[in-house]
Amino acid sequence: MAVLRVLAAHRPPLCFIEGGENGSTPIFSGYLIELLPTLLNQANLQIVYELTAFAGSGGGMQANGSWTGVMGELVAGRTDLALFPLTLTSQRAQYIQATPPFMDDGYGILVKTRRLDSGYSFLLPFTGFTWAMLMVALVAIMLLLTLLDAVTRNARLRAFERLHGTQKLTKKRRDAKVMNHAIESIMMAVGNGAAPTSRSWAVKIVYIAWAVFCVIMLAAYTANLTANMTVSQLGVSFKTLQDLAQSGLPFGVPADSSIAAYFSSSADQAARLLQLKMREFKSTADGAEAVREEKISAFINDYATVQYFTQEPPCDLALSPETIGSGQLVLGLPRNSTLLPKLSTALLQLSEAGYMAELRRKWFVDSSRCSSDTSASSGSGQLHLTQAWSVFMIVAGGAAVGLLAAAGEMLYYRRLYTRMFALRQDVSVMGARAAVKKRVTSGRHIMPNVSMQSDRSGVSNVTGPTSFKSVRFR
Question: What pLDDT was estimated at residue 227?
């Protein structure tokens, strides 16, 4: 029976190779090692395979037309399958065959994390948009409370004038308490509010909704502030190729690789500017160590390969937000290989079934030895408006109920206040039973012994002797 010759190289977490020194048998593990038997089984290939450790890189074409690295092994026919994160390029595709990509993340930029020291740490609990909406809500509540107080106050004043005239109205009673509502709203927002001074139920209802809103937002702010003060905030200094170009340090790439060829012959202007700063390293581990020691500003390689080093202690490396190129990682085979059709179909079937995603989660997420708290963060631990919109609805609901209550108060002072005042006067003079009997027998509401007379301004004044009790009015 023919044996399938499979080449594998140490590229964590895609492939781990342990041992193999002094003639010992190496131990293989990792993403691609676990994928291989499943892939062969899915392709219905009952084949015995033999893994061979390889210490080289992906390889490139020499001036004489020969290939180095994994490409050289495939072109020369010394291996049947390269279990290696080989980036497919137009040049390589002319000399080998390849399966569909098992990953397509592009090239990642590995950089060192730095502690973010900011004088604005107190703003970190909320996002900028959430802070803006809080300010909008505060101003809206201040204006709404002032408006409701002014409208309901005006209705009470008119009702008071109809009974007592204008002589008893002082300037203090006429003025709306604009500054009072502003101070009350702000004090409640910082957790030190008191009951509103207004007698209007509409104002009180809106203020209650605002108080509930402030309690919830203050609790969220305190929790997030504590988390942000406890957990170190980390960030990256280099986020794009332009940042690397402005840095005084060189950057690294794997030697004899597709990414090195990318910077040497790329049409990307930012990449061309970086050609003189490029340094080649034999392995990704050497490049990562150089980044830690700040000998280079960044190390660029396949995203899946450099991602592994962000998940290993001392957890001081991170990936910048920008990725470069397409970086399609494929399994390479020699030209005219009869295995390609079955392996390609099987790989697509595994991807459609979700097996590839599950395998990636196992080797790239679950195997991480760095907690999410120590990784570089961009907005983590912040309250977003999408998480707090329902809390803002409490304020909106309170405002709606407050407007309805204000309409009810205005209706009361226009239609019922005079009658209720007359009823209270009758009750104080003749008792409740006699007052009720009087209204039942008369069939109409009778004012107490009060005579109303209109002055030249059209405002009714009280004349004649009255026995009104003192009326408290604010």
Answer: 72
Those residues whose C-beta lies under 8 Å from the C-beta of residue 10, and which sit 6 or more positions away, are 16, 17, 53, 55
Query: Rounded to whole angstroms, how far apart are CA atoms 34 and 147?
Result: 70
Q: Say what angle helices 178-189 and 128-164 make with each other, to 10 degrees.
A: 140
**pLDDT confidence of residue 463:** 42
In angstroms, the Cα distances linking 454 to 157, 164, 402, 457, 460 are 17, 12, 35, 8, 4
Nearest alpha carbon to residue 234 among 123, 294, 319: 319
Q: Which of 238, 236, 222, 239 is nearest to 381 (CA)?
A: 222
How confident is the model at residue 237, as a pLDDT?
A: 67
CA atoms of 310 and 375, how far apart (whole Å): 8
Q: Kindly report the pTM of this predicted structure.
A: 0.57
Summarize pLDDT for 385-397 with one digit per residue, the tens: 888 888 899 989 9
Integer angstrom CA distances of residue 375 from 113, 155, 166, 224, 320: 8, 60, 71, 17, 12
What's the rounded Cα separation, in Å, for the pair 388 and 14? 41
Beta-strand pair 103-104/81-87: unpaired
Q: Which is more confidently placed, 256 or 31?
A: 31
List the alpha helices (DSSP H) in 353-452.
355-360, 385-415, 417-430, 432-442
State the distance between the two ends of the chain, measured CA to CA, in whole angstroms.
103
Between CA 237 and CA 109 the distance in angstroms is 11
- Measured between alpha carbons, how far is 106 from 58 in angstroms, rounded to an integer? 15
Residue 87 neighbours by CB distance under 10 Å: 24
Say which residue the tokens 């020291």 belong to. Answer: 117
